[in-house]
Amino acid sequence: MRLLHSPLFRHIIATNTCLCHSKTPPNHICKQWRAVSTALNQHIQDLSGSEQTLLNKLYAGLIGGHRASLAESITLVETQHLRKKELAQVLLQRVLAFRREQESHNGGKPVAFRVGLSGPPGAGKSSFIEVVGKILTGRGHKVSVLAVDPSSCTTGGSLMGDKTRMTELSRDMNAFIRPSPTSGTLGGVTRTTNEAIVLCEGAGYDVILVETVGVGQSEFAVADMVDMFVLLIPPAGGDELQGIKRGIIERADLVVVTKSDGDLVVPARRIQAEYTSAMKLLRRQSRSWNPKVVRASSHSVEGISEVWDEMRSYQQVMLASGELQGRRRAQQKVWMWTLIQENVLAHFRHHPAVREALPQLEERVTRGDISPGLASDLLLKSFLSSSS
Ligand SMILES: Nc1nc2c(ncn2[C@@H]2O[C@H](COP(=O)(O)OP(=O)(O)OP(=O)(O)O)[C@@H](O)[C@H]2O)c(=O)[nH]1
Description:
This protein is of the alpha/beta class and 388 residues long. Helix content is 60%, strand content 10%.
């Protein structure tokens, strides 16, 4: 029996079709959805009884806001196991349908606010998240903190996960902290983080903080998955700040100069002034929001509430102008293409014809016998001729 006939899959179709009908969409939208459903049906074999039980249990627990179910669901999307990956997609599809329903009750607007936080090592990110997180849970928000650790992708080590971080927040029942997956490519980690965001939102978390350290490409990956991107800069000068890439400053919707307390207030003010004038010269990213540079201290808590107020006004302005929703739509496409690139490249690399020809061609390219362009053309040719 194919998945199409399984109760769970019928539920997915029913949930989506009913949402589809509730807005009386044009015929072609329904046709497209039917095509997607058929593709999903072909993609996933029928679920066994135990798989259905597992998914039903996870879904109910997740929607009920149980942290253990959320943690287990994220583990499912992080898995490398092929079958479990398929189960994760079925679960995600259900959670997405649930979220769309919530959004339709919210006037079509996203219910959760996704904020990316980045900065050089030691900038004070975890201290900042701990303090902001506690303030937010104190005000009745449910906060989840996800991490994207670039070092886990290259060395299998960790820039962020090894030490105990955010000890108080991790004990807070209205907070959920999930460290970065410990291995995989940046694309893989990005995918699972994107999916973890969806799961956290399904579990009722209305503020999602995605933290990364300002090394490699992870900052750009995070900027592409959030509503607002915040850069945290320590009040140090010279060399320490040179590591901050111009490209990422351009992506910042807000810059927070951290540790603005005691002797560090003076350098923090100087950095604030420098960044304020530098940012005036940068290309504007939004027509409704001007990025700001503010100072805060996690130790004295001075300025922290104001930072959150800035974040909220950003959210309100961007929602009102529709830019936030537009960003999310564009991000979905970027995310899809990143996954396509990664999958296609992996398929290419593992293809028998490519694997056979590769060592010799690499050797000839490094010797300078043939150009890299010719080698790639030849590889592509052998890939295509043996794929057709
Ligand atoms: N004076 C002062 N020090 C701070 C403040 N926030 C953090 N620090 C100190 O800065 C150091 C780094 O803080 P973390 O919060 O661990 O910084 P991080 O950016 O998360 O660091 P990584 O985990 O290495 O990426 C610690 O020694 C903190 O005590 C602050 O508001 N004022």
